[in-house]
Amino acid sequence: MVELKTDTSIEAMREAGRVVARALTAVREAAAVGVVLRDLDEVAHQVLKDAGATSPFLHYHPAFAPVPFPATLITSVNDAIVHGIPDGYRLRDGDLVSADFGASLDGWVGDSAISFIVGTPRPEDVLLIETAERALAAGIAAAVVGNRIGDIAHAVGTVCRDAGYGIPEGFGGHGVGRSMHEDPSVPNEGRPGRGFPLRHGMAIAIEPMLIASGKDGYHAAPDGWTLRTDDGSRAAHVEHTVAITDAGPRILTAL
Asked: Could you tell me the sign of the dihedral formed by the alpha carbons of 116, 190, 205, 85, in that order?
């Protein structure tokens, strides 16, 4: 069931979204050659504590995972698409990092992700991230009252495919509100004019995931959480929580 949020609830979600934005900014600033992923999780966790917020990621245990997620921050490096666990890996020059983070504040959730390069960037990685961000912007632009979920999916997928990138099937965005994952599902590829109609008060996470090689194949790593590209190519993941309003889409997880 899709829950429509009141304007007051959307304002509360905006506060949770600000916490997420601050945490991801802090993570990006802390990430450098030689930094351990586990330390980035501590950076993000401290932002949560300072805000009086909690993590919807920590101890989250969906049916596909063998164990609950052990951290507050998701860090997916290079060929990892999503769901990477921040462990003892030490960042290297040129690493492509996707950081995904959520915050629960006063009963409402914000969820967002960024991708960035540590140290010396490779031009192909810069282009991959820029395209992911363009796909996200296209999806947000389509998130207007009167459109449907398929219009968002089509907008995201068109940018990705036109640029020659792969899209991992079965993973995409979702509704968000009192919990991290709510109805409706928001795919990263689809047909325009199809799916659930967009109405004032809906809140969704739009999150393009791009595979550099143009192939769609992926597999779960031995940890049961991290999804990696089958061919070892790099991936990028970006995300915003967006409220659909009569005045247009409102990004809730921007600074």
From this structure: negative
Checking DSSP bridges between strand 173-175 and strand 240-245, what pairing results, if any? unpaired
- 100: annotated binding-site residue? yes
Closest by Cα among 129, 156, 144 to 202: 144
Percent of the chain surpassing pLDDT 70: 100
Q: Are 199 and 169 in contact (CB under 8 A)?
A: no
Confirm or deny that 124 is annotated as ligand binding. no
Beta-carbon contacts of residue 31 (< 8 Å; ≥ 6 apart)? 40, 91, 97, 99, 116, 118
| Residue 162 is labelled as binding a ligand | no
List Cβ<8 Å contacts ≥24 apart for 244-250.
Answer: 244/143, 244/144, 244/145, 244/198, 244/199, 244/200, 244/201, 244/202, 244/203, 244/204, 245/10, 245/145, 245/200, 245/201, 246/145, 246/200, 248/144, 249/140, 249/141, 249/143, 249/144, 250/10, 250/14
Max CA distance (Å), the chain? 48
Annotated binding residue at 15?
A: no
Q: Any binding-site annotation on 183?
A: no
Q: Consult the annotation and say whether 239 binds a ligand.
A: yes
Tens digits of per-residue pLDDT, 107-162? 999 999 999 999 999 999 999 999 999 999 999 999 999 999 999 999 999 999 99
Check the annotation: does 50 bind a ligand: no
CB 186 within 8 A of CB 108: no
